[in-house]
Amino acid sequence: MDKYVLILAGGLGKRMNMDIPKQFIPIAGRPVLMHTIIKFREYDPKMQIVVIIPKEHIQLWKELCTEFSFNVEHQIVQGGKERFYSVRSGLKRVLNESLVLIHDGVRPLVSHETIERVVNTSIEKGNAIPYMDITQSVRKLYNGRSKMINRTNLKAIQTPQGFHSNMIKEAYAKRYRKSFTDDASVLEAIGYEINLVKGNNKNLKITNSTDIHLVDCLMKL
Length: 221
Known about the structure:
By secondary structure, the protein is α/β, with parallel strands linked by helices. The protein has helices at about 30-45, 60-65, 85-90, 110-125, 165-170, 185-190, 210-220, and strands spanning about 1-10, 25, 30, 50-55, 75-80, 100-105, 125-135, 140, 145-150, 155, 160-165, 195-200.
């Protein structure tokens, strides 16, 4: 089965208070997005890599690739206004019956083991998403008050999320809903059960400047 990974690089970095989008910030010698692409190329040299970037950032990305002599083969797709439409655009590049992984471009520390678990379970069962146990106490807010809830059955979800292409294309052919939080929620909306596999602790999603420093330190370990 052919394999594709759609890497979403549409963040604007508003929470970073920086002029450059977070996926393009240099860490350990190259932009975050390049580290992410390399992870998947190292995992499977034959995997088709599709990078989805907002129209206004495509030229910047091309310039960065030249500046950093980045020659890992990948396709570039123009992203949409919402994540949903970006994924839908990326899926148009998926040919034939394939396995599709969808990953956040600002998660450069996903492990090959996590990718492997997602791939294997997706091939066997049709889909898979990685999770981590929640270790901190969790409270639910309501009417200005809060209540502790049992975290045992709560999981923090990561990417990449994997799907048979026919399954995820069917889901993304439906109408967008604001309630969609990830690709699994889009698939779940048309009636599919979602399969969970173990993720990895270092697979952080960079959302603020603290995350940048943390990921930089983890890369140096």
